[in-house]
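Predict structure. Chain length: 348.
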Amino acid sequence: MSNLQTMRILLSFAFILLFIRSEAQIGGRGVYNFLDVVSSPRLAGLGSKAVAFDENDLNFALANPSMLRPSMHNQIAISNLNFPVGISSAEASYVYHKKGWATFQAGMKYLNYGQFDAANFQGIITGSFTAADYAFLLSASRQIDTNWNIGIQFKIINSVLESYTSWGLAADVAASYRIPEKNITFSLLLRNMGTQLTTYSGVKEPLPFEIQFGVSNKFEHMPFRWHVTLEHLQRWDLSYFNPNLSQVDPLTGEFLDQEVSFGQMFMRHVLIGAEFQMVPGFHFHTAYSFRRRAEMSMLTRRSSAGLSFGFGIRIFKTFFNYSRSIHHVAGATNQVGLTIDIDKYKKK
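Prediction complete.
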Protein backbone atom coordinates (compact mmCIF):
# COMPACT_ATOMS: atom_id res chain seq x y z
CA MET A 1 0.00 0.00 0.00
CA SER A 2 1.45 3.38 -1.01
CA ASN A 3 1.87 6.35 1.33
CA LEU A 4 -0.80 8.26 -0.61
CA GLN A 5 -3.32 5.43 -0.24
CA THR A 6 -2.61 5.15 3.47
CA MET A 7 -3.09 8.91 3.99
CA ARG A 8 -6.42 8.79 2.16
CA ILE A 9 -7.65 5.90 4.30
CA LEU A 10 -6.68 7.64 7.56
CA LEU A 11 -8.23 10.95 6.52
CA SER A 12 -11.41 9.27 5.29
CA PHE A 13 -11.77 7.36 8.56
CA ALA A 14 -11.29 10.53 10.61
CA PHE A 15 -13.92 12.47 8.69
CA ILE A 16 -16.39 9.57 8.84
CA LEU A 17 -16.03 9.61 12.63
CA LEU A 18 -16.52 13.37 12.64
CA PHE A 19 -19.98 13.15 11.11
CA ILE A 20 -21.25 10.24 13.18
CA ARG A 21 -23.55 11.31 16.03
CA SER A 22 -23.15 9.54 19.33
CA GLU A 23 -24.14 9.79 22.98
CA ALA A 24 -20.62 10.48 24.23
CA GLN A 25 -20.47 12.96 27.07
CA ILE A 26 -18.38 16.15 27.14
CA GLY A 27 -18.38 19.31 29.19
CA GLY A 28 -18.26 17.79 32.68
CA ARG A 29 -21.29 15.53 32.35
CA GLY A 30 -19.36 12.42 33.41
CA VAL A 31 -16.65 11.59 35.93
CA TYR A 32 -12.86 11.87 36.05
CA ASN A 33 -12.79 14.95 33.83
CA PHE A 34 -9.42 15.79 35.37
CA LEU A 35 -8.00 13.33 32.82
CA ASP A 36 -8.47 16.10 30.24
CA VAL A 37 -6.38 18.59 32.25
CA VAL A 38 -2.89 18.91 30.74
CA SER A 39 -0.07 19.98 33.05
CA SER A 40 2.78 19.61 30.55
CA PRO A 41 3.70 23.14 29.42
CA ARG A 42 4.98 22.14 25.99
CA LEU A 43 1.83 20.19 25.20
CA ALA A 44 -0.42 22.89 26.68
CA GLY A 45 1.33 25.59 24.67
CA LEU A 46 0.51 23.60 21.53
CA GLY A 47 -3.19 23.54 22.41
CA SER A 48 -3.19 20.58 24.85
CA LYS A 49 -4.06 18.11 22.07
CA ALA A 50 -1.07 17.92 19.71
CA VAL A 51 -1.84 14.25 19.11
CA ALA A 52 0.57 13.78 16.16
CA PHE A 53 3.42 16.05 17.28
CA ASP A 54 6.39 13.82 16.59
CA GLU A 55 9.24 15.09 18.77
CA ASN A 56 11.62 13.33 21.14
CA ASP A 57 9.74 14.43 24.26
CA LEU A 58 8.01 11.97 26.58
CA ASN A 59 5.32 14.54 27.41
CA PHE A 60 3.75 13.92 23.99
CA ALA A 61 3.86 10.19 24.69
CA LEU A 62 2.03 10.74 27.97
CA ALA A 63 -0.87 12.13 25.91
CA ASN A 64 -0.53 9.64 23.03
CA PRO A 65 1.16 6.27 23.78
CA SER A 66 1.97 5.59 20.11
CA MET A 67 4.40 8.54 20.27
CA LEU A 68 6.69 6.54 22.58
CA ARG A 69 10.04 5.81 20.90
CA PRO A 70 13.30 4.09 21.96
CA SER A 71 15.20 7.41 21.94
CA MET A 72 13.12 8.51 24.95
CA HIS A 73 14.80 5.83 27.09
CA ASN A 74 15.68 7.14 30.57
CA GLN A 75 13.81 10.43 30.17
CA ILE A 76 11.99 11.91 33.16
CA ALA A 77 9.39 14.68 33.02
CA ILE A 78 7.82 16.70 35.84
CA SER A 79 5.25 19.46 35.28
CA ASN A 80 2.94 21.63 37.32
CA LEU A 81 -0.16 23.71 36.64
CA ASN A 82 -1.70 26.18 39.09
CA PHE A 83 -5.30 27.33 38.83
CA PRO A 84 -6.84 30.22 40.78
CA VAL A 85 -8.03 29.79 44.41
CA GLY A 86 -5.49 27.12 45.33
CA ILE A 87 -6.32 24.39 42.79
CA SER A 88 -3.26 22.67 41.33
CA SER A 89 -2.41 19.84 38.96
CA ALA A 90 0.82 17.95 38.31
CA GLU A 91 2.22 15.14 36.17
CA ALA A 92 5.35 13.00 36.35
CA SER A 93 6.55 10.18 34.11
CA TYR A 94 9.54 8.00 33.19
CA VAL A 95 10.35 6.06 29.99
CA TYR A 96 12.23 2.76 29.72
CA HIS A 97 13.02 0.94 26.46
CA LYS A 98 13.46 -2.84 26.48
CA LYS A 99 15.33 -3.79 23.33
CA GLY A 100 13.46 -6.32 21.23
CA TRP A 101 10.28 -5.84 23.26
CA ALA A 102 8.74 -2.39 23.45
CA THR A 103 9.08 1.08 24.93
CA PHE A 104 7.36 1.57 28.29
CA GLN A 105 6.27 4.63 30.23
CA ALA A 106 5.11 4.86 33.84
CA GLY A 107 3.61 7.99 35.34
CA MET A 108 0.97 9.61 37.46
CA LYS A 109 -1.12 12.75 37.49
CA TYR A 110 -3.27 14.41 40.09
CA LEU A 111 -5.60 17.34 40.53
CA ASN A 112 -5.86 18.82 44.02
CA TYR A 113 -8.95 20.96 44.58
CA GLY A 114 -7.70 22.40 47.85
CA GLN A 115 -9.34 22.64 51.25
CA PHE A 116 -13.02 23.37 51.90
CA ASP A 117 -15.10 24.32 54.93
CA ALA A 118 -17.50 21.64 56.12
CA ALA A 119 -20.86 22.79 57.46
CA ASN A 120 -24.08 21.19 58.70
CA PHE A 121 -27.56 21.82 57.31
CA GLN A 122 -27.80 24.97 59.46
CA GLY A 123 -24.67 26.46 57.87
CA ILE A 124 -22.55 26.07 61.00
CA ILE A 125 -18.89 25.30 60.20
CA THR A 126 -18.00 21.88 61.60
CA GLY A 127 -14.51 21.42 60.18
CA SER A 128 -12.83 21.10 56.83
CA PHE A 129 -12.26 18.54 54.10
CA THR A 130 -10.16 18.07 50.96
CA ALA A 131 -10.81 16.77 47.45
CA ALA A 132 -8.41 15.33 44.88
CA ASP A 133 -8.23 13.07 41.83
CA TYR A 134 -5.37 10.70 40.97
CA ALA A 135 -4.43 8.58 37.96
CA PHE A 136 -1.62 6.03 37.78
CA LEU A 137 -0.47 5.41 34.23
CA LEU A 138 1.37 2.61 32.43
CA SER A 139 2.01 2.78 28.67
CA ALA A 140 3.65 0.60 26.05
CA SER A 141 4.47 1.23 22.40
CA ARG A 142 5.92 -0.93 19.66
CA GLN A 143 7.10 -0.14 16.15
CA ILE A 144 5.41 -2.43 13.62
CA ASP A 145 7.49 -1.37 10.62
CA THR A 146 9.20 1.72 9.22
CA ASN A 147 5.91 3.61 9.15
CA TRP A 148 3.58 2.25 11.83
CA ASN A 149 3.66 2.57 15.62
CA ILE A 150 0.96 1.34 17.98
CA GLY A 151 0.54 2.16 21.66
CA ILE A 152 -1.71 1.55 24.63
CA GLN A 153 -1.96 3.26 28.02
CA PHE A 154 -3.72 1.90 31.09
CA LYS A 155 -5.02 4.18 33.84
CA ILE A 156 -5.96 3.29 37.39
CA ILE A 157 -8.08 6.17 38.67
CA ASN A 158 -8.88 7.19 42.22
CA SER A 159 -11.09 10.13 43.18
CA VAL A 160 -11.63 11.34 46.76
CA LEU A 161 -14.25 14.04 47.33
CA GLU A 162 -14.72 14.56 51.07
CA SER A 163 -16.03 11.18 52.35
CA TYR A 164 -16.98 9.99 48.84
CA THR A 165 -14.52 7.77 46.99
CA SER A 166 -14.54 6.28 43.52
CA TRP A 167 -12.19 3.97 41.63
CA GLY A 168 -12.02 3.54 37.87
CA LEU A 169 -10.11 1.86 35.09
CA ALA A 170 -9.47 3.32 31.63
CA ALA A 171 -7.28 2.83 28.58
CA ASP A 172 -6.02 4.86 25.63
CA VAL A 173 -5.34 3.13 22.31
CA ALA A 174 -3.42 4.84 19.51
CA ALA A 175 -1.78 4.27 16.14
CA SER A 176 0.65 6.55 14.34
CA TYR A 177 1.80 6.51 10.73
CA ARG A 178 5.06 8.24 9.81
CA ILE A 179 6.45 9.17 6.41
CA PRO A 180 10.11 9.71 7.38
CA GLU A 181 11.26 11.12 4.03
CA LYS A 182 8.63 13.88 4.26
CA ASN A 183 8.67 14.37 8.07
CA ILE A 184 4.89 13.86 8.17
CA THR A 185 3.06 12.03 10.96
CA PHE A 186 -0.59 11.01 11.22
CA SER A 187 -2.07 9.74 14.47
CA LEU A 188 -5.41 8.38 15.64
CA LEU A 189 -6.15 8.24 19.37
CA LEU A 190 -9.06 6.77 21.35
CA ARG A 191 -8.92 8.14 24.90
CA ASN A 192 -10.45 7.13 28.21
CA MET A 193 -12.21 3.91 27.24
CA GLY A 194 -13.22 2.43 30.55
CA THR A 195 -15.61 2.33 33.47
CA GLN A 196 -16.07 3.13 37.14
CA LEU A 197 -15.20 0.18 39.32
CA THR A 198 -16.75 1.77 42.40
CA THR A 199 -19.07 4.78 42.41
CA TYR A 200 -19.40 7.75 44.75
CA SER A 201 -22.95 6.99 45.83
CA GLY A 202 -24.30 4.11 43.77
CA VAL A 203 -24.75 5.97 40.46
CA LYS A 204 -22.46 4.89 37.62
CA GLU A 205 -21.31 7.70 35.32
CA PRO A 206 -19.52 7.71 31.95
CA LEU A 207 -15.85 8.56 31.51
CA PRO A 208 -14.77 11.46 29.22
CA PHE A 209 -14.27 9.27 26.13
CA GLU A 210 -12.83 11.09 23.13
CA ILE A 211 -11.51 10.33 19.64
CA GLN A 212 -8.75 12.53 18.23
CA PHE A 213 -7.02 12.59 14.86
CA GLY A 214 -4.00 14.70 14.04
CA VAL A 215 -1.31 15.43 11.50
CA SER A 216 2.02 17.21 11.89
CA ASN A 217 4.81 18.14 9.52
CA LYS A 218 8.34 19.42 10.05
CA PHE A 219 9.82 21.33 7.13
CA GLU A 220 13.16 19.99 5.91
CA HIS A 221 14.91 23.34 5.49
CA MET A 222 13.03 25.40 8.08
CA PRO A 223 13.10 25.23 11.92
CA PHE A 224 9.33 24.89 11.99
CA ARG A 225 6.77 22.15 12.75
CA TRP A 226 3.01 22.63 12.46
CA HIS A 227 0.13 20.44 13.57
CA VAL A 228 -3.62 20.20 13.08
CA THR A 229 -5.72 18.15 15.49
CA LEU A 230 -9.39 17.23 15.14
CA GLU A 231 -10.89 16.72 18.59
CA HIS A 232 -14.10 15.07 19.84
CA LEU A 233 -14.64 13.14 16.63
CA GLN A 234 -17.12 10.88 18.45
CA ARG A 235 -19.64 13.73 18.48
CA TRP A 236 -20.53 16.22 15.77
CA ASP A 237 -22.56 18.76 17.76
CA LEU A 238 -20.30 20.51 20.29
CA SER A 239 -22.56 23.54 20.70
CA TYR A 240 -24.47 24.38 23.86
CA PHE A 241 -26.78 27.12 25.08
CA ASN A 242 -24.78 30.12 26.31
CA PRO A 243 -26.91 33.03 27.62
CA ASN A 244 -23.89 35.36 27.37
CA LEU A 245 -23.92 34.93 23.59
CA SER A 246 -27.71 34.97 23.14
CA GLN A 247 -30.03 37.78 22.19
CA VAL A 248 -33.27 38.41 24.06
CA ASP A 249 -36.62 38.83 22.34
CA PRO A 250 -37.74 42.41 23.26
CA LEU A 251 -41.39 41.38 23.34
CA THR A 252 -41.32 38.11 25.28
CA GLY A 253 -38.06 38.50 27.17
CA GLU A 254 -37.06 34.98 26.14
CA PHE A 255 -33.68 33.97 24.78
CA LEU A 256 -33.61 33.50 21.02
CA ASP A 257 -32.31 30.22 19.64
CA GLN A 258 -28.62 30.23 18.82
CA GLU A 259 -27.82 29.16 15.30
CA VAL A 260 -24.47 27.53 14.64
CA SER A 261 -23.57 27.15 10.98
CA PHE A 262 -21.97 24.05 9.48
CA GLY A 263 -18.65 25.85 9.17
CA GLN A 264 -18.73 27.08 12.78
CA MET A 265 -19.59 23.59 14.01
CA PHE A 266 -16.78 22.05 12.02
CA MET A 267 -14.23 24.55 13.31
CA ARG A 268 -15.11 23.67 16.90
CA HIS A 269 -13.37 20.37 16.21
CA VAL A 270 -10.20 22.03 14.91
CA LEU A 271 -7.07 22.94 16.82
CA ILE A 272 -3.97 24.33 15.12
CA GLY A 273 -0.47 24.96 16.44
CA ALA A 274 3.17 25.39 15.52
CA GLU A 275 6.62 25.30 17.07
CA PHE A 276 9.71 27.26 16.00
CA GLN A 277 13.21 26.01 16.82
CA MET A 278 15.45 28.88 15.79
CA VAL A 279 18.58 27.62 17.56
CA PRO A 280 19.45 24.29 19.20
CA GLY A 281 18.17 24.16 22.75
CA PHE A 282 15.41 26.75 22.33
CA HIS A 283 11.90 26.60 20.89
CA PHE A 284 8.81 28.78 20.87
CA HIS A 285 5.33 27.27 20.47
CA THR A 286 1.83 28.60 20.00
CA ALA A 287 -1.65 27.26 19.22
CA TYR A 288 -5.27 28.25 18.81
CA SER A 289 -8.38 26.30 19.87
CA PHE A 290 -11.50 27.31 17.97
CA ARG A 291 -13.76 25.42 20.39
CA ARG A 292 -12.31 27.18 23.43
CA ARG A 293 -12.79 30.50 21.65
CA ALA A 294 -16.43 29.69 20.82
CA GLU A 295 -17.21 28.54 24.36
CA MET A 296 -15.39 31.22 26.35
CA SER A 297 -15.87 34.42 24.35
CA MET A 298 -18.20 37.26 25.36
CA LEU A 299 -20.25 39.70 23.31
CA THR A 300 -19.30 42.66 25.49
CA ARG A 301 -15.56 42.06 25.82
CA ARG A 302 -12.78 41.18 23.44
CA SER A 303 -10.41 38.47 24.58
CA SER A 304 -7.70 36.12 23.38
CA ALA A 305 -9.58 33.04 24.60
CA GLY A 306 -8.37 29.97 22.75
CA LEU A 307 -4.78 31.19 22.38
CA SER A 308 -1.86 29.46 24.06
CA PHE A 309 1.87 30.01 23.76
CA GLY A 310 5.14 29.28 25.50
CA PHE A 311 8.80 28.39 25.14
CA GLY A 312 11.37 25.79 26.05
CA ILE A 313 15.06 26.26 26.76
CA ARG A 314 17.86 23.87 27.60
CA ILE A 315 19.66 24.81 30.79
CA PHE A 316 22.79 22.68 31.09
CA LYS A 317 21.41 19.16 30.50
CA THR A 318 17.80 19.85 31.51
CA PHE A 319 15.02 21.27 29.38
CA PHE A 320 12.81 23.89 31.04
CA ASN A 321 9.37 24.58 29.48
CA TYR A 322 6.82 27.28 30.18
CA SER A 323 3.41 28.01 28.65
CA ARG A 324 0.41 30.24 29.17
CA SER A 325 -3.12 29.28 28.10
CA ILE A 326 -5.80 31.96 27.83
CA HIS A 327 -9.21 30.56 28.73
CA HIS A 328 -11.31 33.67 29.36
CA VAL A 329 -11.14 37.41 29.96
CA ALA A 330 -11.16 36.53 33.66
CA GLY A 331 -7.76 34.90 33.50
CA ALA A 332 -5.30 32.36 32.17
CA THR A 333 -3.25 29.44 33.45
CA ASN A 334 0.53 29.08 33.61
CA GLN A 335 2.43 25.81 33.36
CA VAL A 336 6.05 24.96 34.07
CA GLY A 337 7.91 21.72 33.61
CA LEU A 338 11.29 20.00 33.44
CA THR A 339 12.41 17.25 31.08
CA ILE A 340 15.55 15.39 32.11
CA ASP A 341 17.55 12.88 30.07
CA ILE A 342 19.30 10.73 32.68
CA ASP A 343 21.79 9.30 30.18
CA LYS A 344 23.25 12.77 29.56
CA TYR A 345 24.19 12.99 33.24
CA LYS A 346 26.03 9.70 33.28
CA LYS A 347 29.80 9.87 33.26
CA LYS A 348 31.41 8.66 30.06
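Summary: The chain has five helices and 14 strands.
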